[in-house]
Structures
1.
Amino acid sequence: MANTITVRAEFRADLGKAATRRLRRFTGKVPGILYGGDRGPQPLSLEQRDLARVMQDEAFFSQVLELKVDDVGQQAVLRDLQRHPANDKVIHVDFMRVRDDAPLSMRVPLHFLGEDHCVGVRQGGGSLSHNLIEVEISSLPADLPEYIDVDVTDLDVGGSVHLSDITLPPGVTLVALTQGQDHDLPVVSVIPPRGGSGDDEEEMEEVAEEPSDEEDSEED
């Protein structure tokens, strides 16, 4: 599990669309909400600068966070983040409370290992095609990985790593694989170089070197 990221917030009493517009425009804060568990939803506000800082860490989007509301800490995960369509600025965040004994479904990033030494790229002249860059996993909060490694070192031209090929940390399952074999998707593949494989090129050269029927006739 990654180092805990602390997110600071305050309870927000002024509710409604007009209130949230004023909050964003005049205070530089972002409205949010905390829900889930055995308690009701609680409206929050967060400093825009503090939120931008913690968002620089990849783990913010996939890890259990320490949400400190008025200096009282509790575990939560990010469930939704809304951005302004024009300037991409965050305009609302949703957090969900976490229980230690309740499994979580989270999307976590994939980290690809051995790309610089991939057999199919270095020796076969192919190129890597990333079909997925994150996966949905299920685990208890204590087992939640920061990311999942996918080793492509030995991947040859035409080869693929599927979801079922990924080595998972203890206590972690891939949600897609619980839905049947049809959901065992390719994660990363090595596609052949343009113009075909080396074998194809050799065959073309051999055909070009063989005399045609017309040449055979002329020699006769």
2.
Amino acid sequence: MFQLWGKLWKQNSLLNDVTISDDREDTRTHKVFHALEEICLHFDLEQPIWLDANVREFQRHAKTRFGKDSFIEDVDFDYLEIQIIEED
């Protein structure tokens, strides 16, 4: 089972969170992108832009934060954090 945890933060307070599970036979990358899409649908957000820093951080720690600069639209939170909490 693959699980990705998405959390919205504002002023060091957790606003909302959701966990997306995926048990399909697919690559880790595809599972991450699919789960991130589901997280964004849940929070009614557009897809964030993956900056180089996000890619490096996610590869190292299986966790990254998308700040306001990762979104084209104006958002009412400080950052969206995603973290893998379970992998096959």
3.
Amino acid sequence: MKIEVNPQNTKRAFAFEMWMTSPMPMVTLVKTMNVSNLLKISKKTGVRFNTLLCWCIGKATSETEELHLLPEDGKLYQYDQFAINVVVRNCKGGINSCDIPFSENLQQFSHDYIALTTKVVEGCESSFVEGYMIIGTSAMIQTELDCIVNQYTDKFLNPMVMWGKYRKSLFKTTLPVSFQFHHVQMDGGDAVRFLERLQGKINQMVG
């Protein structure tokens, strides 16, 4: 559910005053994640690597207080439901967006991921959900990337997690992850704690 809140009654009151009218309020941090556990679970269970990573992102988001809030049209809104947005290449060679509601149940999330993205691929129409906090993702797995900085647009102020191809070495598999967020939502320290929380979810996942 999405409800409007008074910024002055939240921890983000100062940030709202400082950054709500900023022409460039987005911040990007990059952290190299150890994703060895996700790759192992993916091979063991058959669940796609990107599906597992998206679930971990949703799990970390649900436990990050600052990401329950989002500025929009000069107002601040609070959410209690989350969805992961993925970019899908459709059957005609174009791209569409697909929102996948987050579920604490990994099997349910994986089922929804496959069903919803397949529908988008075949129908060539984007699929969106209303009333959810959307965490955008963009996976460009054709090549290894060190960093991704997304475009800034006032049409999409949501947090965005982006990555390229993971890097395998003898002892571990790593993946640089770019995290873009609105400064009204969180400060740099909050974003760092989110990325650490995400790494924790990756490490703790059991297949």
